[in-house]
Design brief:
With 251 residues, the protein is an alpha/beta fold. Strands 6-5-4-7-8-9 form a 6-stranded mixed β-sheet, sandwiched between helices. Strands 1-3-2 form a 3-stranded antiparallel β-sheet.
């Protein structure tokens, strides 16, 4: 466990509250009107007029409108890359893995604060792709850089877990550095990752990709052509602006 990491996240309280506000904009609770109901929330004037015009309808006509609250029913998967390259440093001076963990931690805090369900994972690849399910912020703070990164394999693994859960709205947030370098089946790693995003979208899971890299170059556009939203960030302080943009474009 890493209580120091949790304490560090608490120092970002203003950022966290801003992210909470942004995510609350995505799918707010809505009041839905159900016309011609037996539940007497409000008279339906149209139904009342029909009964007045035809008294035979009095015993069977539903002359009320009722209201129900459509509550948020959201599940979010957060996946971070802990490959060896995440030990490198960005232009800001921070290590890539620290920006990834801080970003994932802030999103995790924000979503759990509004009572959304969150699945938190980290991955690396060394021959096989290891997918670690993290049970909370202290587990997240304890992860360290490991080997390579087969992003497509890890994405499919998380999607498989998310499919087991019932939720009206599902979103997968992927935070990685650099170019995918493996697939586990000999395909081009960038194309394979792009296909994994496409497969998730086809199954009704929105995909959001944050790339933490000094030089994402041309692979970024190819890798993210099938995502709902993608953004390259350099420091955790940029995250609320990226989340805000995502909400405004896709909320």
């Amino acid at each position: 466990s890493n209580p120091e990491f949790v304490s560090q996240l608490n120092a970002y309280d203003i950022l966290r509250r801003r992210i909470v506000e942004h995510f609350e904009m995505l799918k707010p609770n809505e009041l839905q009107r159900i016309p011609f109901s037996e539940v007497p929330d409000e008279l339906n004037i149209e139904a009342v007029i029909e009964v007045l015009c035809d008294p035979s309808l009095r015993t069977k006509s539903k002359v009320y409108d009722s209201y129900i609250v459509n509550e948020r029913d959201a599940l979010t998967g957060i996946l971070i890359d802990i490959s060896g390259s995440t030990a490198g440093r960005l232009q800001s001076g921070k290590r890539v893995i620290d920006v990834e963990k801080e970003s994932a931690g802030l999103i995790y805090q924000a979503l759990t604060e509004i009572d959304d369900r969150v699945l938190l994972y980290a991955f690396s690849t060394s021959g096989i792709t290891n997918l670690y399910q993290l049970t909370g912020l202290e587990n997240l703070g304890a992860v360290r850089p490991e080997a390579g990164n087969a992003d497509g394999v890890a994405i499919r693994g998380v999607v498989s877990e998310m499919k087991k859960e019932e939720a009206r709205d599902k979103t997968l947030i992927v935070i990685t550095d650099g170019k995918p370098v493996a697939t586990g089946k000999g395909a081009d790693p960038v194309i394979d990752t792009s296909m994994a995003f496409m497969e998730a979208e086809a199954q009704g899971i929105r995909t959001v990709y944050f790339n933490v890299d000094n030089n994402p170059s041309n692979y970024f556009d190819v890798l993210t052509r099938n995502t709902t939203y993608a953004k390259s960030i350099r420091d955790v302080e940029q995250l609320p602006f990226a989340v805000s943009e995502f909400v405004l474009e896709h909320g």
